[in-house]
Amino acid sequence: MIKKELRIMTITPDQIPAQSQDRTPALESEMTPRPEYDDPHYKGSDKLRDKVALITGGDSGIGRSVAVYFAKEGANVAICYLDEHEDAKETQKAVEEYECECLLIPGDIRSEKFCQEAVQQTLNKFGKLDILVNNAAVQYLEPSLEEIDSAQLGDTFATNIFSMFYLTKVAVPHLKPGSSIINTTSINAYKGNSKLLSYSTTKGAILAFTRSVAEPLLEKGIRVNGVAPGPIWTPFIPDAFEGEAVSNFGKQVPMQRPGQPKEIAPSFVFLASEDASYMAGQVLHPNGGVVIGA
Question: For this structure, is 37 an active site residue?
Fold first, then answer.
């Protein structure tokens, strides 16, 4: 019998020091340890050859990893991000290492006009759009319902869910049969999180949005699905949490560790490719072993 090397994606919570960042969005370049967005053992097989993808929040975290894995499968990508320019350039460099192009589109997805411009810039650069990944989001720690700030609540909904309406609305007329839309929801959409109440609520809205548009868009040959990650080591974490909450991150799931972005990206590759040709309105759950029943 040939023994295969077991490659366990590491890190464990005790390898994460207490940390926080003063800016929002936080920067991946300032995290310790740095998130792992690429797995050299993953070999692409042209599943997305000559496709074009627009990915929001593609400068870091899950979005960066998705951009790199799409490139490994042969896709050119455009990434939207707010103002994390150096992180975005690192994503661009990583994509280009796989001989694909990466268009950087800085701006605020809370603006419907910017969302329209982002799609148009992608079309101007690549001449088409095949895959839309609605991934960008913000989250804020909220001690209680009574302490939620109304302006912050509006910002969370504008970023996390309104932008999906804007981008999907403008992208659909340019998507041909066989195209794919993938929305990033969260384990919190299913389990809730009292300390991330507004964020969790938007993720529930994303789940409903995904299921609600999936069937009508099938009439156009467009598949809409989602991914609901568990605790993943991304700039989200030192942005929203501080101290011991960061150093204990990921202990709550059965695998007792946070996931890495590179463990989530293959779910997006699957849903974007013809491997998922019989899936619509569905959600994948790379969450560290938590069983989701709904």
Answer: no
Number of residues assigned to the chain? 294
pTM (two decimals): 0.91
Residue among 113, 108, 129 nearest 56 (CA): 108
The residues, any chain, with a CB within 8 Å of residue 148's CB and separated by 6 or more, are 142, 197, 198
CB 274 within 8 A of CB 221: no
Q: What are phi and psi of 246, to 5 degrees?
A: -75, -45
pLDDT in tens, 10-34: 677 777 766 676 767 767 666 667 7
- Catalytic pick among 81, 140, 199, 278: 199
Which of 3.40.30.10, 3.40.50.150, 3.40.50.720, 3.90.1150.10 would CATH assign to domain 49-284? 3.40.50.720
Give the angle 130-276-116 at the CA atoms, nearest 5°.
25
Amino acid at 12: T
